[in-house]
Write a structure and sequence with these properties.
Distance between the termini: 83 Å
Protein name: Synaptogyrin
Low-confidence stretches: 180-188
Number of strands: 2
Strand content: under 5%
Number of domains: 1
InterPro entries: Marvel, Synaptogyrin
Main location: membrane
Helix content: 55-70%
GO cellular component, one term: synaptic vesicle membrane
Mean pLDDT: 79
Radius of gyration: 37 Å
Oligomer: single chain
Keywords: Membrane, Transmembrane, Transmembrane helix
Structural class: mainly alpha
Number of helices: 6
CATH class: Mainly Alpha
CATH topology: Butyryl-CoA Dehydrogenase, subunit A, domain 3
Length: about 230
């Protein structure tokens, strides 16, 4: 059971790239990675605009609140590198032979996915609220599509990371059940005695020698011989 647990095959087995890419967890991870690029890319490229043509200063399009743009960029970058990291972990997961190490990896994935789900929820609410308060000037109209894209993909990222957290939870429960099964079935009782070999087990007995049968009865006193009297 050390080799097969937490939703992966026996340790050391070859990883089929096609099967790996078809896994729901891999698809969700790549999707969340793309969403993060859209969010921080949109904010960096088009969500800093001039307030008017006379002012060269670039301001955040979300109600001129620099914190909104900074938060969106930060959470997008964290999500971007987090997806890459756990993609590599998923790729190397089958090479991990220790059940404890697999458990730590799954718990880390579960905690990170749940935390990112919360951060993306905050990002969606924050950006949407600041966008509602934004006064539509010339600069805001130029970056409106990018701002809406950042808000929309922030919402999509919530669903993506929640799904990843659910998948990690399923893997954790699967691994816990298999570990309990292994404990119940294979833990030896130190006071238990080992059973003997059953009859007809195929184990040869060491006592295989038998005396040859007597074919004729020998006389107690052979003919022509008398016991001398003393």
């Amino acid at each position: 059971m050390e080799g097969a647990s937490f939703g992966a095959g026996r340790a050391g087995g070859a990883v089929d790239p096609l099967d790996f890419l078809k896994q729901p967890q891999t698809i969700l991870r790549v999707t969340a990675w793309i969403f993060s690029i859209v969010v921080f890319g949109s904010i960096v490229n088009e969500c800093y605009v001039n307030k008017d043509s006379q002012s060269p200063e670039l301001l955040c399009i979300f109600n001129e609140n620099e914190s909104a743009c900074s938060y969106g960029i930060a959470i997008g970058i964290i999500s971007f590198f987090g997806c890459i990291f756990f993609f590599v972990v998923d790729l190397q997961f089958q090479q991990i032979s220790s059940v404890k190490d697999r458990k730590r990896a799954v718990l880390l994935d579960l905690g990170f996915s749940g935390f990112l789900s919360f951060l993306w929820f905050v990002a969606f609410c924050f950006l949407a609220n600041q966008w509602q308060r934004t006064k539509m000037g010339k600069g805001a109209l130029q970056g409106a599509d990018a701002a809406r894209a950042a808000i929309a993909f922030s919402f999509f990222s919530i669903a993506g990371w929640v799904a990843l957290a659910v998948k990690a939870l399923q893997r954790y429960r699967l691994g816990t059940d298999m570990s309990l099964f292994a404990t119940d079935q294979f833990t030896a009782d130190p006071n238990a005695s080992y059973p003997g070999y059953p009859t007809g087990s195929g184990i040869e007995s060491t006592e295989t020698y038998q005396s040859p049968p007597f074919t004729e009865t020998s006389d107690a006193n052979p003919k022509g011989y008398q016991v001398p009297a003393y």
